[in-house]
Amino acid sequence: MRNKIQFLFFSLLCFIVLVNQKAIAQASAIGIFDGHTDVGLVKHQGNVQYDPKLQQYHLEGSGANIWATSDAFHFVWKRIKGDFILRTNAAFIGKGVEDHRKIGLMIRSTLDSNSKHINAVVHGDGLTSLQYRKTVGGITEEKKSTITAANVIQLERKGNTYTMSVARKGDMFVTEEVSDLDLGDEVYVGIFICSHNANVTEKAIFNNVRIVVPAPATLVPYKQYLGSSIELLDLATQNSTVVYQSPKSLQAPNWMHDGQSIIYNSEGSLYKFNLKTRQPVVLNTDPAKNNNNDHVLSFDGKMLAISSGDGGPSIGYTVPATGGRAKRISAVGVGASYMHGWSPDGKYIVFCGERNREFDVYRIPSVGGKEVRLTNSPGLDDGPEYTPDGKYIYFNSVRSGLMQVWRMKADGSEQTQITSDDYNNWFPHVSPDGKWICYITFLKNEVEPGDHPFYKHVFIRVMPAGGGPSKVVAYLYGGQGTINTPSWSPDSKHIAFVSNSQ
């Protein structure tokens, strides 16, 4: 009897060790997540593989369902408190077995199968919905989206209010909301997969996965800042990878002519960031000491036009792209000047100038000299930039109500509105091949037409240079500093931008 008890005790001890080893393995970091696990009773153990180069997550999992009073699925998670925004692009791999297999974003109070939770989910048949369980062991409820087959998914928490924003890639978001759902302060958040059939395993791929901690309501703009990520967007796949992160405010990446480095500004200095070594180096711009996010490379890549305000209005300078002595080109005592675009021949620079409390587009010789006013409509005209052939200047203007993208000939004639929608569109940038325009879009319920603040829900959109429908290529949290300057790669295949999170 004693030997039998010892055997049972030893067997139990081995079982506990195995369970603990599994728990430890599942709690190891995967990308931005703390761990992964099967929730509920599953027949086939799930798994996740992380590709650090593409920053993609490959999930496989089974599980009977995420519905009714209990759930069974595979979950990749992180513990987090307070308000946050989850976002991903997600797609099943293969045809699959069940129409109601599920992928999406999940927030849970616990890892118990009957936990309170909310999830933004896309089903195998395209049904896209916001599902939630208000009480432990309660019945799952659902709000169906007006669109189907979403592959861009966002789930945001503000207190006890949860908002699902979903889109088919290229479109703007459609939202659903649930309020008064108390999941507790610290929760499990992440990505999931459920086969909806206990006997099979499904696979899916998740990219552009982000966990964003937004600005608190108490943040003082231009005095307090969130951390920054420099991201490179592949336009062919619309997959974005983070190449550099900092707790400081990084702004306005310019892709250098050789395609190997990026210039950005932070805390008054300009930095050259090597994409291979992932290391930034300060550029000498003396005597310009307080540089802002209006800086632009010449078409030949040899010179920079920069904007600097040392306790006064912003002043325009030119400086070698490798750094050196900055030369002032702005006139003295005329008002603020924000440099935005070189002419292709390098002879002129266009900028946004504040003169007598009006902001308009001006042109000035790159060696300095007399400035010429190109726009004169009341309200803000900003962000001017030449096309590669030098024939046109794109800019943004509030003259039609909301901020929209406009175009004029290089002499300021034939000013024509290019975008006309229900959003605020800023800073049009022409691709080096002259075929495309990218610009940043703010929501009109968050931002006034004449403003482009930090830390908002924004979209980077692309449209043909000659006009035509726009498509969203990046969904992010950012704004001021995201793409203030031309940020195309020299081959017109990538865009550099800045996103933000606390």
Write the layout of secondary structure elements.
Layout: H1 2-26, E1 35-39, E2 47-51, E3 56-61, E4 66-67, E5 70-71, E6 73-80, E7 84-93, E8 102-108, E9 117-123, E10 128-133, E11 141-144, E12 152-158, E13 161-167, E14 174-178, E15 187-194, E16 202-212, E17 227-234, E18 239-246, E19 251-255, E20 261-266, E21 269-274, E22 279-282, E23 296-297, E24 303-308, E25 315-320, E26 327-328, E27 337-342, E28 348-355, E29 358-365, E30 372-373, E31 381-386, E32 392-397, E33 404-409, E34 416-417, E35 424-430, E36 436-442, E37 456-464, E38 471-478, E39 494-501
Folded structure, characterized:
The protein is mainly beta and 502 residues long. It has 2 domains: 33-212, Jelly Rolls, CATH 2.60.120.200; 227-501, TolB, C-terminal domain (Neuraminidase, 6 Propeller). The chain is built from 1 helix and 39 strands. The protein has one helix at 2-26; strands spanning 35-39, 47-51, 56-61, 66-67, 70-71, 73-80, 84-93, 102-108, 117-123, 128-133, 141-144, 152-158, 161-167, 174-178, 187-194, 202-212, 227-234, 239-246, 251-255, 261-266, 269-274, 279-282, 296-297, 303-308, 315-320, 327-328, 337-342, 348-355, 358-365, 372-373, 381-386, 392-397, 404-409, 416-417, 424-430, 436-442, 456-464, 471-478, 494-501. The strands form 9 sheets. A 7-stranded antiparallel sheet has the order 1-6-15-8-9-10-11. Strand 25 (315-320) and strand 26 (327-328) form a beta hairpin. The longest helix is centred in the first third of the chain and has 25 residues, at 2-26. The protein is elongated and about 75 Å long. The chain starts with a helix and ends with a strand. Mean pLDDT is 94; it is low at 1-25.
